[in-house]
Amino acid sequence: MLRFDVHKQLREFTLMIADEIPNGVTVVEGPSGAGKTTLLRMIAGLVHPDTGQIALGERMLSDTATATFVPPYQRNVAYVFQEYALFPHLDVTQNVAYGLRARHVQKAETATRVAAALERFEIAALAKARVTDLSGGQRQRVALARALAVEPAALLLDEPLAALDPATRERVRGELATMLASVNIPTLFVSHDPADHSLFGRALHIERGRLTQLS
Fold first, then answer.
1. For the purposes of burial, counting CB atoms within 10 Å of the CB of 82, is it exposed (0-12), middle (13-18) or buried (19 or more)?
2. pLDDT tens-digit series, residues 154-204
3. Distance (Å, whole) CA 160 – CA 43
4. Which of 24, 69, 120, 156 has a C-alpha 20 to 30 A away from that of 2?
5. Tens digits of per-residue pLDDT, 16-69?
6. CA pair distance 205, 141, nearest whole angstrom
7. What is the pLDDT of residue 215?
8. Is the CATH code 3.60.40.10 the one for domain 1-76+184-215?
9. Is the C-alpha dihedral spanning 192, 193, 194, 199 positive or negative?
10. Are 150 and 101 in contact (CB under 8 A)?
11. So where are the chain's domains?
């Protein structure tokens, strides 16, 4: 369970939102500038809340009342950015291994977990390919493999389909839903597209920093 009750002053309004996110996918929807990405960045530890708490399971990640703040690299929260943030000078295997190496996981275990992630997302045949040579859907698979190879306790997806052209988006949407169905951790999926909501059973609607609808 991921829990948050946070306030953050933005340029035009204050983000004030509280919820409990169960295992599985919750779509976070709403207009541009509503505060969706800021919420994800606070959960990831990339932005400090002005006030409030964020907890993952029994672990407090941020609590302004007690000056608790766990840095991003210690939160065990995986973040997939809109543009995927893959390293163009590295091949697929090196990209997927990056988070494990940053956590100083031993080489043998890193190799095992990377191989399993490549198989899970059906990109083992692309292990030595440069990410610049991959299609949009393939790059998305690499980004997910990298995120989940570290065995996170929560997953954050910031408009993961937005960088794809419309035809590719329709195909990859179904593939992504299938892949995420096996990820039994709290997952927040930011989207502007109502079609994404239709694939998952739970959604938060945010407008001007407020939770206006929960379905």
1. middle
2. 999 998 877 777 777 777 788 778 878 878 899 999 987 777 777 777 889
3. 17
4. 120
5. 999 999 999 999 998 888 999 999 999 999 999 999 999 999 999 999 999 999
6. 27
7. 66
8. no
9. negative
10. no
11. 1-76+184-215
At 187, the amino acid letter reads: T
Distance CA 11, CA 202 (A): 29
Residue 202: CA count within 13 A, CB half-sphere: 12
3-state secondary structure of 63: strand
Could you tell me the two tokens for 19?
A: 């919820």
Helix, strand or coil, per DSSP, at residue 148: helix
Contacts of 72 (CB under 8 A, 6+ apart): 44, 45, 46
Higher pLDDT, 174 or 77: 77
Cα–Cα distance measured from residue 92 to residue 95, given in angstroms and rounded to the nearest whole number: 5
10 Å CB burial of residue 21 (0-12, 13-18, 19+) is buried
Mean pLDDT for the chain overall = 89
Place of tokens 């191989």: 115
